[in-house]
Every structure is written in C-alpha cells, then in structure tokens.
Amino acid sequence: MRAGYNVRGIVRSELTADKVHRAFPEYEEELSLVVVPDILRTKAFGEAVQGVTEAAAIEGTINILDSITRNAPQVRQVVHTSSFGATLDPSKGTWPGHVYTEADWNPMTYAEVVHEDTTVLAAYYAGKAGAERAAQDFMATETPPFDLVTTCPPYVCGPIKRLTASLAHLNTPSMEIYRLMSPI
After folding, report:
1. Which UniProt keywords apply (predicted)?
2. For the chain, what is the domain count?
3. pLDDT higher than threshold 90 for residue 170
C-alpha cells in the first residue's frame, strides 16, 4: 500500500474488518476487505478474487527474494515456508506408502483454481505451489548470492498472539489443538 498498490484482504468477520480498518486508517482508499466467514465453502473466495491481477503468495514471494537480492547482500540463505499442499497431487488420492520428495508437485495452477469450481483449500495449495515454482524460477534466472531452502510442513502452529474471549474466535490450528486436548 505504501508503494502505491491497492490491497484486497480476506477476513472472517465484519468485526475483524473493522479492527483492520482502524489499525490502518491511512490506507482507507487502498485497502479493501472481503468477509469470507467459511473459507472451506466451495467458491468462498469468488468475490475476493474478482478483478485481482496477481496472487499474493506468488508475487509476495518474488518481491521478498528480489528485495533481499537488491538490499541485503549479507544474506546467505533464505528459508521459504511453503505447504505440504504444494506437493499434493489430488489425482493420486491419499497415495498410501508414497514417500514425498522435491519431485512431487501439486499440478493445479492458481489461474486454474480461480476459474474452476474448486475448494478454497485447492486454491491455497495451488497458490503455495505457484509461489514455490516462482521462487525456484527466480533463483535460476537471477542467480542471487544466497541459497533458497523450501520447507513444506503439513501443519504450523504456535502460541496465540492475542487471547480471544471465546473458543468461537480461535484460529484453525489453535482450534484443532484445543479439540485434541478436550474431553469427548
């Protein structure tokens, strides 16, 4: 936004949208938010991607690599956190016994999932795979002075930054951990 870009973000509720707008009042014109309460619903992001010209995960990854190349010559290694979803090929099913390697890729592109009747998770995975491919292409064409290491974790969790007033407002990873610890 500071660089003149318009940014469209996705939030889960109007309450969150209000909080974000209050946190960034100087970007009232550049920041738009779309409320998507159920990100697992098919076509949940339909409105959010209308008119979007670049996928944030892909463009964001390239922007950070380019910035490091131009402004941080002391950096020797960059760790890119992708997702296990970038390696999943939905046509293979659960693929029992398969050992995943760097040769495994999710074949869907971000452009395909935006224009097809796919789930939000499929769009997320395609975006992660696209960002990872873009990072590898960047490394091959720009030959920066650092190494790139990509990790594809199946799950990421950590401490909650802000405690919420109710369980209904926990983020997905925290809710899953809560469910594991809760009595049946």
Report:
1. Oxidoreductase
2. 2
3. no
Q: Would you state the structure tokens that stand for residue 149, as one six-digit string?
A: 């290491």
Q: Which long-range contacts (CB under 8 A, 24 or more apart) does 75-80 make?
A: 75/145, 75/146, 76/145, 76/146, 76/147, 77/146, 77/147, 77/148, 77/149, 78/146, 78/147, 78/148, 78/149, 79/149, 79/150, 79/151, 80/131, 80/132, 80/135, 80/148, 80/149, 80/150, 80/151
If asked whether residues 73 and 135 sit together in one domain, one would say: yes
CB 6 within 8 A of CB 32: yes
Neighbours of 170 (CB within 10 A): 16
Q: When comparing pLDDT for 67 and 14, which is higher?
A: 14
144 shares its domain with 159:
no
Gap between the terminal Cα atoms of the chain:
46
- 103 has pLDDT over 70: yes
Q: How many CB atoms lie within 10 A of CB 7?
A: 12
**125 and 77 fall within a common domain:** yes
- Residues 21, 23, 25, 29: is their CA dihedral positive or negative? negative
